[in-house]
Design goal:
By secondary structure, the chain is α/β, with parallel strands linked by helices. It is built from 14 helices and 12 strands. It has 3 domains: about 60 residues, 434 Repressor (Amino-terminal Domain); about 110 residues, no CATH class; about 230 residues, D-Maltodextrin-Binding Protein, domain 2 (3-Layer(aba) Sandwich), CATH 3.40.190.290.
Length: about 400
């Protein structure tokens, strides 16, 4: 037994006894065996990352407080929500031996770890975001766990562009923390981080910015706690064509925000651009969104209504990753117009031409509805601080934030 093992075991025993739990009670709450608890407390075993996290959650403290800081010695298998540069899959097993050194956010979601690559807009706001780990070559022990689970492979009803999730090896930078993972396009989602950090015990927040179709793909695969989607006026169905069938069965739906979607236009063109027909007539350049994004659906619906072909719109083949990215491109003069949310247009001081009313909902897969992270989400969605922040953003309507919709 090492000194570190003894200290970790003593910390666990004292924390358990202070709460009046027996070893069997703690084991049942954490979903581990009593023998595992006993082995850790006696200093005869180092807990795995999953066991350490489960014990800390059951006791109600952070892993760092329970077992002390330090970098775990071994990499862990994690499912990446998107391919990493250099990803190699020649053996068909979903390994990523060529993905070394890439920074990722690492979060436990259900019974697995999920990696969110920190690159481009996902890895930087006004500064770099902290990483939870680094992708590393998989050693023999970790490689055994790098097969893609059957339930995650190519779900039916999803867009053709969806890829089978890749499983990579990640060396954590410090113990993974309980983290709410949300995918979706609303740039207001990161506001959840502040109230989540104040719950007891605190929950971290990770956002994967993407369109509704991709968010639902990740939710159906169980890789996120919640998917942010655009919904019909009654809030019950996804608006994007072909995505309705991809919604997880028995999912919980909660309101978040509502806004108008439309053309963001350079201020000097406000008198010229009164609609998409003017963009085409004056051969102005647009910036588009990725397939599966609601903004692209709105653009295509308006284009079809006006009888315009894709080639009638200069820049139609471009693809920006989100509302703020579209507004930023227009503001920087890289494009003359693009479809985004009204709050994004206002944030950049752009002219706005409304095209559609949007409601944005959070879809929570049934397998995660009882998770501690989701319980914290429900709590903070109705917090006065979050509602005030949403209301302070021009163009947002938070009237349904936190309301169950099914």
């Amino acid at each position: 037994m090492t000194e570190a093992q003894g200290a970790a075991g003593a910390n666990l025993r004292l924390a358990r006894q202070a709460r009046g739990f027996s070893q069997q009670q703690l084991a049942s709450m954490a979903g581990v065996s009593r023998q595992a608890v006993s082995a850790v407390e006696s200093g005869h075993s180092d807990p795995s990352l999953r066991v350490a996290l489960a014990l800390a959650q059951a006791i109600g403290v952070s892993v760092e407080d329970l077992f002390g800081p330090g970098e775990p010695a071994a990499p862990v298998p994690a499912i990446s929500v998107a391919p990493l540069p250099g990803h190699q899959d020649a053996d068909g097993a979903g390994h990523a031996h060529g993905s070394s050194g890439h920074r990722v956010m690492l979060a436990p979601v259900g019974d697995r770890f999920v990696a969110l690559p920190l690159r481009g807009d996902a890895g930087a706001g006004l500064g770099f975001l902290p990483a939870g780990g680094l992708a590393v070559p998989a050693g023999p022990a970790v490689a055994k766990g790098l097969a893609v689970p059957t339930r995650l492979a190519a779900p039916s009803g999803l867009p053709a562009a969806s890829a089978t999730p890749a499983v990579i090896a990640v060396r954590p930078i410090g113990p993974p923390r309980p983290t709410l993972v949300v995918a979706g396009c609303d740039p207001a989602l990161p506001l959840l981080a502040t109230p989540l950090s104040l719950v007891d015990p605190p929950v971290a927040f990770a956002w994967w910015p993407c369109g509704s179709a991709e968010a639902l793909r990740l939710a159906r695969a169980g890789l996120v706690h919640a998917a942010g989607i655009h919904a019909d006026a009654d809030g019950t169905a996804v608006r994007s064509a072909g995505v309705r069938a991809a919604a997880p069965d028995d999912a919980e739906v909660i309101g978040f925000t509502a806004w108008r979607e439309g053309l963001t236009v350079r201020p000097d063109l406000a008198a010229t651009v009164t609609g998409l027909d003017a963009v085409a007539r004056h051969r102005l350049r647009i910036v588009n969104r990725e397939p599966g994004a609601e903004a692209r659906r709105v653009l295509d619906a308006e284009r079809a209504r006006l009888g315009l072909a894709p080639e009638d719109l200069t820049g139609y083949q471009t693809s920006a990753a989100g509302h703020l990215q579209v507004a930023s491109a227009v503001s920087a003069g890289l494009a003359d117009a693009g479809v985004a949310s009204e709050p994004a247009a206002r944030a950049y001081g752009l002219h706005f031409v409304p095209l559609a009313d949007e409601t944005f909902r959070l879809v929570i897969p049934a397998e995660h509805t009882a998770a501690r992270e989701v319980q914290a989400l429900r709590k903070v969605l109705s917090s006065p601080w979050l509602l005030a922040q949403l209301a302070s953003l021009p163009g947002y309507d938070p009237a349904t934030c936190g309301q169950p919709l099914n």
